[in-house]
Amino acid sequence: MKVKKAVFPVAGLGTRFLPATKASPKEMLPLIDKPLVQYVVEEAVSSGIEQILFVTGRGKRAIEDHFDIAFELESILRQKGNSEAAQEVRDIADLVSIYYVRQKEALGLGHAILCAREFIGGEPFAVLLGDDIIDAQTPCLHQLLEVYNHYRGSVLALEQVPPENISSYGCVKANTISDRVYEVTDLVEKPKREEAPSDLAIIGRYVLTPEIFPILEKQEAGKGGEIQLTDAIKKLSTREAIYGCRFEGTRYDCGDKLGFLKATVDMALKREEMGRQFEVFLRERLSIS
After folding, report:
1. Which residues are paired to 56 by β-bridges?
2. Any bridge partners for residue 182, and if so which?
3. Residues in CB range of 2: below 8 A, 6 or more apart
């Protein structure tokens, strides 16, 4: 069955970016001239996703507004002769069919996915986290879907991370099947460095079978008192094969201030309209220091 639906859990509070996120969702932080979440939605659409469900929380209305039609703004732009900008605004609303559901309590990523059960039904589906911006020639989700289409099992995006950072991630033990493809044999949520089974971290892209829902429904709270998706996938792995894809591309952790700055610099340098001037500016600043 083709994967046509994706879930975007966006109910988090974004405390690492306070006070900027006091009144604005972290997903709406601008990476140059687009909010973070738009980059991830565009990745999903370019990977063949047709329907998206945002699992939102209090204070996330700006996300809904961003992907809605803005008649007044479009009208003003056209009256001013800026039809190109007006079309760009309309294109955002026309990207994909988008739906919303509230996660009324902050009970973890696993619980957020469970909130999507009715929307997903009995289909396989994708999960994309807005904190991870992945710059890749072939979209990261598309790479995962190729693995899913071949093996017909849940697929996790994997990235090798320095051992000193592994405790910040879910981590897998896995056997290599082919280039960049693994069969996952164990999963651990945020292990201590000395207890990590490998340096392969789970990154914010998943393709999951609907068999995850009955497990999430009974899943007890794990680390941090939250229902952990990693724990549920570990149980799923005892019932069906789980695969990992070490994706090709550059990933930016935009839930972290330094990662956000790195993404901003790299993306700006790639922009045709500003890249060269920005590079000159950076070189001048570095030479002064």
Report:
1. 102
2. 176, 244
3. 48
> Which two tokens mark 111?
């619980």
- Residue (of 44, 229, 231, 28) closest to 131 by Cα position: 28
pTM above 0.90, yes or no: yes
pLDDT of residue 263: 96
Residue 208 has pLDDT above 90, yes or no: yes
- Token pair belonging to 159: 């990235």
Q: What pairs with residue 178 in β-bridges?
A: 181
Question: In the chain, what are the helix, strand and coil shares in percent, each to the nearest 5?
Answer: 40, 25, 35
Per residue in 240-278, pLDDT (tens digit) is 999 999 999 999 999 899 999 999 999 999 999 999 999
Amino acid at 67: F
Task: State how far the Cα of 276 lies from the Cα of 56, in Å rounded to an integer.
Answer: 38
Q: Are 148 and 124 in contact (CB under 8 A)?
A: yes
Strands 51-56 and 132-135, bridge-based pairing: unpaired
pLDDT tens, position by position, 96-131: 999 999 988 878 899 999 999 999 999 999 999 988
- DSSP states of 141-204: HHHHHHHHHHH-SEEEEEEE--GGGGGGSEEEEEEEEETTEEEEEEEEES--GGG-S-SEEEEE
Q: What is the dihedral of CA 109, 92, 144, 246, to 10 degrees?
A: -80
Q: How far apart are CA 133 and CA 136, in angstroms?
A: 10
- Residue of 266, 268, 211 lying closest to 235 (CA atoms): 211
Give per-residue pLDDT as tens, 46-59. 999 999 999 998 88
What kind and span of H or E run contains 252?
strand 250-253
Q: Please choose, from the candidates 130, 112, 108, the residue with its C-alpha nearest in 3D space to the C-alpha of residue 120.
A: 112
In this structure, are residues 167 and 193 in contact, taking their beta carbons and an 8 Å threshold?
Answer: yes
CB 64 within 8 A of CB 10: no
